[in-house]
Amino acid sequence: MPPVDGVTTDTQDTALVQSHAARALRGGFGGKLCIHPAQLAAVHAAFAPAPEQADWARRVVDGFAAAQGGVFSIDGRMVDAPVVALARQVLARAARIRVPQGASGLG
Fold first, then answer.
1. For residue 76, how many other CB atoms are within 10 A of its CB?
2. Could you give the angle at the alpha carbon of 82 between the alpha carbons of 81 and 83, nearest 5°?
3. What is the pLDDT of residue 25?
4. What is the SS3 assignment for 73?
């Protein structure tokens, strides 16, 4: 399980909270602690995969199953075990934040 980032003490600057959360995601963190409900939407927006990312991840996982665990290609790019692992991580984040398939942009 990935580590969880600490709090951002500013509870009103949602752009700052989202920026800190996005930085945490890039750094390998799996979540961020919040100290106020006003921070939740910004953290969710930062950690939620874009709908296009979630769709890509679904196609990778489905393609892996169809290839019966072998190497295959999606959008002209080779897909192997590390790419499938990344796709599964994206889907796990989408499920935790409930990103619907084919959803339009996140706030």
1. 5
2. 90
3. 94
4. strand
98 sits in the region (left: phi over 0; alpha: psi -120 to 50; else beta) called: left
Using the 8-state DSSP alphabet, how is residue 48 labeled? S
Between 30 and 79, where is the model more confident? 79
Residue 15: pLDDT over 70: yes
User: What count of other Cβ atoms lies within 10 Å of the Cβ of residue 6?
Assistant: 12
Q: Which amino acid belongs to residue 1?
A: M
E strand or H helix at 10: none
To the nearest 10 degrees (0 to 180), the angle between helices 81-97 and 51-66 is: 130
34 contacts: CB under 8 Å, gap ≥ 6: 7, 17, 40, 43
Report the distance separating Cα 24 and Cα 3, nearest Å: 10
Q: Predicted confidence band at 3 (pLDDT cuts at 50, 70, 90)?
A: very high
Q: Which amino acid appears at position 89 of this protein?
A: Q
| Beta strand 77-79 pairing with 31-32 | unpaired
